[in-house]
Design brief:
The complex is a heterodimer of chains A (about 250) and B (about 525). By secondary structure, chain A is α+β, with helices and mostly antiparallel strands. Chain A is built from 7 helices and 7 strands. The relative contact order of chain A is 0.13.
Chain lengths: ~250, ~525
């Protein structure tokens, strides 16, 4: 490579760079500020997910192009909780540009082997409670696109200490009826006078609250127990690697 | 503990098991509502009789479910094992706890831009089979959901929605197959009826309601008009398990109002078709209206009835048609038995001995305008009739209104309206609406109730001696099925564009109707 030639080629460009860079960083700064105020409550301050999707990844499922990303920020995603907005075109493009930088972070180092992880998944009977590709249990969250929604760190924690972060919509209830029946289940719905839950047997129950002796909400409990003792560190890595590979595209 | 949990989960009964045999035998569990019309025979009659002529005046709302949609709410709910399954417009589905009315899950479809439907982004309900819920969508997909969770099992494209195809019909679940029809008769589609494998979503067969080159009936279309021939299948059909025949109505040929570009009878538009459900093979058809130019759509509910006809026991198919004639066919052969006018019309001078109409040339749409009764919303429409074996009457909500039709351009472009006329209301004349009770074997009028506007509500008869109906002004009411005396009414606050159903919850009879954007469940006071 002829360095002198390269420098002579790039020099005129480089002279324009500082101005361009500062405009770009101003846009990025605006994008970051807007993201934190407009998007962070669902997508997390770092964009790595919460109630909303994890955006800190190189490819976004709905926003397959920059144009699609801007369109989603403007119009939302029908059928989901992602709303549209009244942001100006320049604000939208700032946010979109910033969101794209989130995905450019160094990919998480996941030392495990996804193929071996799939075997571990099967041997632990994870499908008893979790569904994948339409097959499996319904006690726990569906895992089809868990790798698109959760970081490796989150998934690792979920395996080791499930009760540290019970996902939304999976509140465990302990119910005793006035006629002496006791249930443990996952809440399906509730209002002031009634509660519906799915018992760990998979069976759905609906009670008026005045039929219940006690209704305990076990916010920090999960029907899933820790797999820390059951898995070697290598197996945990494999399983995390497998889960991260589930992007919902198959 | 984990092992115990595993055992528990594996031993768990799978809920909402609705095998085919259970739907076939729906009459033995009147507390459920397992298929669109209540049974494969599509009589929309219930043997429940807790609510009857004497106590119906005490009926009151027990619970209400509100949708967030402003589209017409045309659902006919299904009920089984303590859960009600509904669709909400445009193409969503919800499971409701029967005991409390509270949602158990929701499926909310993300729709693409540019959905074209002639008459609202609506949906009339789901089908249930085994542990799955089946939903057609306005972007012309068929979706299978896990009945316990609402999670998608599979989602297949039935047709290309940008060409004007849409699904609004409730699918029909048969033994090992899901039958689904298509809408789009105003967009120059080529109609069909499909069957899908419930396990995989694989298409098992397609019956083109407009035959292609080399197929019987193709020569009833001039030139290449068959490619845009319409004949959609957007209302749920009926099934006779003994004969193993599937019956389905077909819609108008396209373009709706211009006949010259599609010379011929235009098979199998404006017909009832009888298919082998395993293969989709046509066993017989009866075309009510060859070469229709009034957009009458013979997409009504085929009502199956076994009865003595002129002294001979016969398997009959009753069909109060949108074209204002009431038909009785032999459902084994398709033989025409009766055709009798049941509503105001001027498009036909009568029917010949084979049931073929003698058309009135003065009603052909032209540039000066042709006055036509009924208008293209018809004397009947997609909403359901009901037959009561208790009174031996068939009941039909009837629309009596005409319009003037002016020829307009119809140039085919995919996804664009392809109809060929504009319509002007007749001034100085009030459109009229009726609930009519007819003799099922003759079509003769037995009694009628006049309502305010032409109705869009379906009907349900019960063994309590009642017929339930609704009005466009929002009145839900029950009439004495023998006399037509209105015994109870309730103003729901929203127009009724739906069929009623009834079911048992914890041993008590309920009646449900969609009105406005609410689904209202009525019961007697406890």
């Amino acid at each position: 490579m002829n360095h002198r030639f390269l420098i002579s080629l790039l020099l005129p460009l480089a002279l324009c760079l500082p101005a361009a860079l500062s405009a770009q960083s101003a846009q990025m700064e605006q994008g970051k500020r807007l993201f934190e105020s407009q998007c962070g409550s669902c997508h997390g301050p770092l964009g790595n997910g919460g109630k909303g999707a994890n955006l800190a990844q190189p490819q976004l499922r709905h926003a397959t192009s920059d144009q699609a990303l801007q369109s989603i920020i403007r119009r939302g995603i029908p059928g989901t909780e992602m709303p549209g907005s009244f942001l100006t075109p320049s604000q939208v493009s700032s946010i979109a540009a910033y969101v794209r930088t989130l995905g450019r972070v160094e990919p998480e180092q996941i030392p495990g082997d996804a193929g071996r992880g799939a075997q571990t998944y099967a041997s632990l009977n994870c499908q008893t409670c979790h569904a994948l590709g339409g097959q499996g249990g319904i006690i726990g969250p569906v895992l089809d696109d868990i790798g698109a929604r959760r970081s490796a760190a989150y998934l690792r924690e979920a395996l080791v200490e499930p009760e540290a972060s019970v996902p939304r919509g999976f509140l465990q209830l302990r119910v005793v009826t006035k006629d002496g029946r006791a249930f443990t289940g996952i809440r399906v719905n509730e209002d002031g006078f009634s509660v519906q839950f799915r018992a760990l047997t998979g069976r759905l129950h609906s009670f008026w609250k005045d039929e219940l002796e006690t209704l305990d909400k076990e916010w920090q409990r999960s029907p899933m127990e820790s797999y820390e003792a059951e898995l070697t560190p290598g197996q945990t890595d494999d399983l995390v690697s497998y889960l991260v590979s589930l992007k919902g595209d198959t | 503990m984990k092992a115990l949990l595993l055992l528990l989960v594996i031993a768990a009964p799978v809920t909402a098991q609705v095998p085919y045999e259970r739907i076939l035998d729906a009459a033995s569990e009147p507390g459920s509502w397992l298929t669109y019309s209540g049974s494969y025979g599509a009589q929309r009659y219930s043997t429940l009789d807790q609510i009857d002529r004497d106590n119906v005046d005490q009926l009151q709302p027990a619970w209400i479910y509100q949708t967030r949609s402003t589209q017409k709410f045309e659902v006919s709910p299904l009920v089984v094992d303590g859960v009600m399954y509904i669709t909400e417009p445009p193409s969503d589905a919800t499971a409701l706890d029967l005991r409390t009315g509270r949602p158990l899950w929701r499926y909310r479809r993300s729709l693409p831009q540019g959905i074209v439907t002639c008459c609202g982004q609506v949906n009339r309900g789901v089908a249930l089979l085994d542990d799955q819920v089946f939903l057609g969508t306005v972007d012309a997909h068929l979706v299978a959901l896990d009945a316990r969770t609402g999670l998608v099992r599979w989602d297949v494209e039935v047709a290309e929605h940008t060409e004007g195809y849409a699904i609004t019909v409730a699918p029909l679940a048969l033994d090992g197959k899901i039958i689904v029809g298509i809408a789009g008769g105003e967009y120059g589609i080529r109609g069909f009826l499909d069957a899908y494998d419930p396990a995989t979503g694989e298409r098992l067969w397609r019956f083109w309601t407009v035959p292609g080159p080399g197929e019987p009936g193709h020569d009833t279309w001039s030139g290449d008009s068959w490619q845009r021939g319409g004949a959609p299948t957007w209302v749920t059909g009926a099934y006779d398990a003994e004969l193993d025949l599937l019956y389905w109505g077909t819609g108008n040929p396209g373009p709706d109002f211009i006949g010259e570009v599609r010379e011929g009878d235009n098979l199998y538009s404006e017909s009832v078709i009888a298919l082998d459900p395993d293969t989709g093979e046509l066993k017989w058809y009866f075309q009510f209206l060859p070469h229709d130019i009034h957009d009458y759509d013979s997409t009504q509910i085929p009502v199956l009835l076994d009865a003595d006809f002129e002294g001979v026991p016969r398997k009959l198919l009753l069909f109060p048609n949108r074209n204002a004639f009431y038909y009785v066919l032999d459902r084994v052969t398709g033989e025409f038995l009766v055709g009798k006018q049941f509503a105001r019309q001027n498009w036909a001078l009568g029917l010949d001995e084979n049931g073929r109409p003698i058309e009135n040339p003065e009603t052909i749409p032209d540039l000066d305008g042709a006055l036509v009764y009924p208008d293209d919303d018809g004397a009947a429409n997609w909403y359901s009739p009901t037959f009561s074996p208790q009174t031996n009457l068939i009941y039909q909500n009837v629309r009596e209104t005409g319009a003037t039709y002016y020829l307009a351009d119809a140039t085919y472009e995919p996804g664009k309206i392809y109809m060929g006329a504009s319509r002007r209301r007749i001034s100085g004349e009030d459109p009229r609406g009726f609930l009519r009770a007819l003799n099922p074997l003759t079509g003769d009028l037995v009694w009628e109730i006049q309502v305010h506007s032409p109705p869009w509500a379906g009907l349900m008869a019960t063994a309590g001696g009642l017929v339930f109906s609704g009005t466009t002004e929002g009145d839900f009411f029950a009439a004495d099925a023998r006399t037509g005396e209105v015994l109870w009414r309730f103003q729901t606050g929203g127009g009724i564009y739906a069929n009623p159903i009834t079911y048992l919850s914890e041993g008590h009879q309920y009646v449900a109707i969609a009105a406005g954007s609410a689904l209202i469940n009525f019961a007697l006071p406890r």
